[in-house]
Amino acid sequence: MHYFEYRNGELYCEEVPVKKILKEVGTPVYIYSAKTIKRHFKVFRESFSKIDHLICYSVKANSNIAIISLLKQLGSGADIVSAGELKRALKAGIDPKKIVFSGVGKTPEEIELALNADILMFNVESLEELETLGEVARRLGKKAPFALRVNPDVDPQTHPYISTGLKKSKFGIPEEFVIEAYKKTKKNSYLHPIGIDAHIGSQITSISPFVDALSRLKKIWEELISLGFELKYLDIGGGLGIVYENEEPPLPQEYADAIIKEGRDLEATIILEPGRVIVGNAGILVTKVLYTKENVLKKFVIVDAGMNDLIRPAFYQAYHKIIPVEEKNLEYEVVDVVGPICESSDFFAKERKLPKVKKGDFLAIMSAGAYGFVMSSNYNSRPRPPEVLVDGEDYYVIRKRETIEDLLAFETIPDKYL
Ligand code: LLP
C-alpha cells in the first residue's frame, strides 16, 4: 500500500504531481511519501499492540534525518550500526533509551560514543567485542547494557547476500557459546546483560524462519532466566519482506501474531527492528530518458540514473517495477532500462515489457525507499541525487543534490604534481 498513483494519466505522490517536483529539482531524484511511511509504521505498531514491545526503526534502510525524525514523532526508536547512524538518530531527536546498537565491527570509539549517549542496549556480535565493551565501560566508569546476538542457524530463504542467520554467516555468536558467554559476564560489574538478540536476514517472505529463530531464542532465554539472569528485552531483529513484484510476504498482523504466539509466555519486552517494511514502498527514484537505441538483439532505454544511485538491481539482481510518470502510451515494447555508468551491470530492468518511451520522458523506479539512496555512491564522479519528502500538498527537499564541487572538495593535489 502506498500513495503513488495516477490521476488523469499523471503520476502523483500524495497530492503533488511528480512532474511539479521534477521541474524544481530535476532528475534523478528520490521522492518519498510521508503518508505511506506513517501508515506503514502505524500498521506495524498496531499489530503488536497486544504485547509489550519497542519498535527500533532500522536506520540503515533510509537514514535521512527527516525520515528518522518523522518516525520519532510516531514513537519509534532506532536500530543503529555505526557512529554515523547514532549521530543521525540523536540529531533526529530519538530518545537514546530507545536506541539499540547492532553490527559485527563496532570500534572502541563507536562504543564509547554510544555509552556516553546512554543508549538502551548493545547487541554484541562476538566474544571479543564483549571484552572490548567491558573495557571501554570500565574506562568510562559506566555499566554497559547488552544483549548477545545469537546466530540461530535458520535459513531465511532470501537472497544469499542478505541472509544473516546461517552458521556460515559472519553475524552473531553461535548458539553453543552463548550461555557460557553470559555466565562469564557475571563477574564483570561493567557489563549488564539485559536481553538477547537475533536478526536472520532481510526481505523474508514467509513466517516460519522468524518463528524458528524466536523458538531458538526462547530456549536460551529460559535457560538464562533459570540461571538467575534478569533479562528484559528480546530483540528479534527486522527482515519482514515487501512486494517488489509478485512476492506474497506475510502481513504485519500475521507476522506479529506468529511472534506473539511463540513468545506469549515470556516476560519480555519484544524489540523489533523493521527497516524495509516501513520505508521500502514509500519511495521512488525518478529518472529521465536520455536516449533510446537498438541493436539486432535488443532495444535500450538509457536513463540519467545509474547503478551509483540505486544499486539493488546490479547488486542483487533485484526487481524494481518501472512506470512512466506520464501514462500516455498504450503501445508496449520489450527493453533494457540502463544507466550511463561504464559497467554492464548498470541496469534497472532487463527484457522488460514497458510502455514505449522516448527521449525526454520520465520513468519512476518503484519501491526505492529502502536501501536506495543510502547505498548510493559517487562512482563515475556522479553527484548523488536529491531526496524530496512529500506530505499531503507540501513537499520538502530533505537532501539537496550534490554538486561536482562537493565531490572535489575532499581532494588535494600535492605541490610537486602541480
Ligand atoms: N536489524 C539488523 C541487525 C539488520 O542488519 C537489518 C538489515 C535490519 C534490522 C533491517 O532489516 P529489514 O527490516 O530492512 O529487512 N541492502 C539489502 C538489505 C540489507 C539488510 C541489512 N540488514 C537490500 O537492498 O536488499
Strand content: 25-35%
- Ranges where pLDDT stays below 50 over 5 or more residues in a row are none
> Number of DSSP strands?
21
CATH superfamily of the largest domain: Alanine racemase
Q: Can you tell me the overall shape?
A: globular
Tell me the number of structural domains: 2
CATH structural class of the largest domain:
Alpha Beta
- What CATH architecture of the largest domain would you give? Alpha-Beta Barrel
Class of secondary structure makeup? alpha/beta
Assign the CATH topology of the largest domain: TIM Barrel
Average pLDDT number:
96
Small molecules bound: ligand LLP
Q: What is the rounded distance between the termini?
A: 56 Å
> Roughly how many Å is the radius of gyration?
23 Å
Number of helices: 12
Q: What percentage of residues falls in helices of 4 or more residues?
A: 25-40%
Q: Describe the biggest sheet?
A: 9 strands, mixed
Structure, explained:
With 418 residues, the chain is α/β, with parallel strands linked by helices. It folds into 2 domains: 158 residues, Lyase, Ornithine Decarboxylase, Chain A, domain 1 (Beta Barrel); 170 residues, TIM Barrel (Alpha-Beta Barrel), CATH 3.20.20.10. It has 12 helices and 21 strands. The strands form 3 sheets. Strands 4, 14, 15, 16, 17, 18, 19, 20 and 21 form a 9-stranded mixed beta sheet that branches. Helix 2 runs parallel beside helix 9. The radius of gyration is 23 Å and the shape is globular. The mean pLDDT is 96. Bound molecules: ligand LLP.
